[in-house]
Amino acid sequence: MSEDEEDETRGGEEKRRSPDPGRGGGGGANPPPPFSDQVLENVLENVLQFLDSRRDRNAVSLVCRSWCRAEAQTRRDLFIGNCYAVSPARAVERFRRVRALVLKGKPRFADFNLVPPRWGAGFYPWLAALAPAYPWLERLCLKRMSISDADLSLLALSFPTFRDLTLICCDGFGTAGLAAIAEHCRHLRVLDLIENDVEEEEEEMVDWVSRFSTTSLESLVFDFVGCAVNLDALEALVARSPSLRRLRVNQHVSVGHLRRLMERAPQLTHLGTGSFGEGGGGGGEVEVADLEAAFAASRSLVCLSGFRDLAPEYLPAICPACANLASLNLSYADITAEQLKPVIIHCHNLQTFWVLDTVGDEGLQVVAATCKDLRELRVFPLDVTEDSEGSVSDVGLVAISQGCRKLRSILYFCQRMTNAAVATMSENCQELVVFRLCIMGRHRPDHLTREPMDEGFGAIVMNCKKLTRLAVSGLLTDKAFGYIGMYGKLLRTLSVAFAGNSDLGLRYVLEGCPKLQKLEIRDSPFGDAGLLSGIHHYYNMRFLWMSSCKLSLRGCKEVAQRLPHLVVEWIRDKPEEDDGEAVEKLYVYRSLAGRRNDAPPFVEIL
Amino acid sequence: MELELGLALPNNHLMKGLDLNDGSTTNSYRKRGFEEAFEEVIPKATLPLFVHKNGGDGDDENDSPQLKNSPELNRALVGWPPVKHPRRRSAGGGAEERWSEHCGSNSDDGGGGRRAKCVKVKMEGVAIGRKVDLSLHDSYEELFHTLNQMFPNMQHGFAHHPHHHRRRFMVTYEDGEGDWLLVGDMPWEDFIRSVKRLKILS
């Protein structure tokens, strides 16, 4: 058995949970191999160090004990998709020479506040194990973990060659922690703070930007750090960072300051503007023409984002850069199709485009006409409510599908959709790997035929042969899940909300999708029978989330009983609503570490 | 015990609800929708599933079978539509208030009605701060009641005495000008307008 740390696509046949003494793996006190074997292992290590893909590495580690050891010695990049799936001690014991770690914590529905605060995913236990084990750790990426200022301090002091820190959707830290990183990581190249929840009282704010000690900064992203930064210090930092390629600032940086920063760093490839209008505060007024000149001078720009507090007349200033843009994020800019047009018509090479639905179907038609190379599109709603007007619809979707045939990934929020439009997209966009459609009104049918949206999503799974990620919405019956189970053979991630009729729906999916890794369901009428139909598969999955379904204690306990390596968490954050039998929130994941010891009182592990 | 059923008004985001356990039959219907946020007792008749926010307007097809038979209890629908909070905060001009699980997921920019006014509450000596939605309260009495619930160890400390003695804890607030004042000295409506955040001192 290979005690694999997380892997995106572990098929059922490879994952054997029963311990097998014949096979090695980390953690065992095995006697050292004979000399000749040692030589072979050394040779193997020299070969394996060229292997990058973690799936290949996982396969290698299954060959035999010797290969498993050799692979463990040469793995530099460790990916742990669920911080509770394995204990830090065990990970560190097996992989002795890790330089880079990716660690993920809370389930994705935590982004929508379905996971109560203080649920877990604290970074400290990992840090405590990493610090002594990997003194040469260089890169760390944490997603949905809780990390305190003290943790950041300890991190900064524990790893003298530390280079890259990426924090995505994390919480628990503030500017004090950032200051520690800035000050003590002398070789820092990357500090990317992406959509974190940075708590800060004004009187506690620290001027972290002044503390940077590195001269090799390549990337600084802080577009959602809420507090104002020392702008002079930022400018000085940019000026002394010749390697800086990526800079994304928060909305406290005005257009005036932005222009100065751009002048200091004409070599930037990725730029996130702060406020792009008059309101930014300080920095002085900037003529649109001057701003445009700044964009013309930045010849290396391939990615633009930000545009918060946008004054629409400033937007055309980016036109000189448009022809080279591969990625444009206008999803914080409340603009109409008319305002989008003069900019987007220059973006012939655009591959990634994020936008607000305020541009409407008309705006999307212009995108479709120009951006022939588009691979990823995300359309976000301005008005995030169920009963808003909605400015994009099936019309926009069809236009995109006709114009952007190479589309691989789409996230589309709307209020009106038709099966025909979705089916058209499935036929036109054969490269689709990710299809996420959010019809914001719950249980909403095809707005023309009044039928459920079964046929549309059915067409997607049937026609898009490369699909690995799907999010469904609208009025859906069990039939839709039947299609998913029948055709979604490569599906790894499925998100379901307010859909289905009965346990059959869940059964179709669990029985039909062999590659399913992540299943997140909310407010759907799936009960114990549906849950139990996945028993054969849960060890192959990273997690299952079910909230506001029809689960009961009996079914959940049975799963826990029959699958001892599964952690079955009953999250009871509303004890006053508890009637003792219904399980309102269930989070299930495989683990080599058994039940965690840091579960808060509202989590009961069955 | 009296059952009070009410339909939500068509364009009204404000909540009306059942109130079985709490003997009060006051018209503080705005409070009920956020009960779970303030850990007050929820009437047992509440369904765990959510009811449509809008009352009469929605198409029939919009109602799912499971919702049609539910009592007219409207509650905040957490996390739907599924948009991450930085986006909710910033898109369309951006509210000053930071979104938390207690406020803001039920976006209130449709129709008339008061914006959720969430302010931070920190208690001296307690590491973790909380948030309270002031727009759901009509008086200092109600506010103190909520604070009592949030900081249960201080249960008996918040009685609102006119002369502020015999009170173990002081509730202060920061106003628009950055000054820290004692809560309770001015009319509720004025207080609501100027308060930025709360701090509880012992």
Structure description:
The radius of gyration of chain A is 25 Å and the shape is globular. In chain A, β2 (100-104), α5 and β3 (139-143) form a beta-alpha-beta unit. Chain A is α/β, with parallel strands linked by helices and 606 residues long. Chain A has 20 helices and 21 strands. The model of chain A is unreliable at 1-28 (pLDDT under 50). Chain A has a 21-stranded mixed β-sheet. Chain B is of the alpha+beta class and 202 residues long. In chain B, 16% of the residues lie in helices and 11% in strands. Chain B has 5 helices and 5 strands; from the N terminus they run αααββαββαβ. The radius of gyration of chain B is 18 Å and the shape is globular. At the A-B interface, loops of A face α3 of B.
Please supply descriptive tags for the structure shown above.
heterodimer; A: 606 residues; alpha/beta; 21-stranded mixed β-sheet; 21 strands; 31% helix; disordered N terminus; B: 202 residues; alpha+beta; five-stranded mixed β-sheet; 5 helices; 5 strands; AUX_IAA (chain B)
For the sheet with most strands of chain B, the description reads: 5 strands, mixed
Average pLDDT figure of chain A? 91
Task: Tell me the strand percentage band of chain A.
Answer: 15-25%
Report strand order across the widest sheet of chain B. 2-1-5-3-4
Shape of chain A: globular
**What is the number of helices of chain A?**
20
* Rg over alpha carbons of chain B: 18 Å
Question: Which chains have the largest interface?
Answer: A-B, 52 and 46 residues
Q: For the residues shown, what is the average pLDDT of chain B? A: 58
Question: How much helix, percentage-wise, in residues of chain B?
Answer: 10-25%
What portion of residues of chain A is helical?
25-40%
Largest sheet of chain A: 21 strands, mixed
- Please provide the ordered H/E string of secondary-structure elements of chain B: HHHEEHEEHE
User: What is the CA-based Rg of chain A, rounded?
Assistant: 25 Å
Number of helices of chain B: 5
Instruction: Tell me the total number of β-strands of chain A.
Output: 21
Biased composition (Basic and acidic residues) (chain A): 9-20
Protein name (chain A): Transport inhibitor response 1-like protein
InterPro entries (chain A): COI1_F-box, F-box-like_dom_sf, LRR_dom_sf, Transp_inhibit
Region (Disordered) (chain A): 1-36
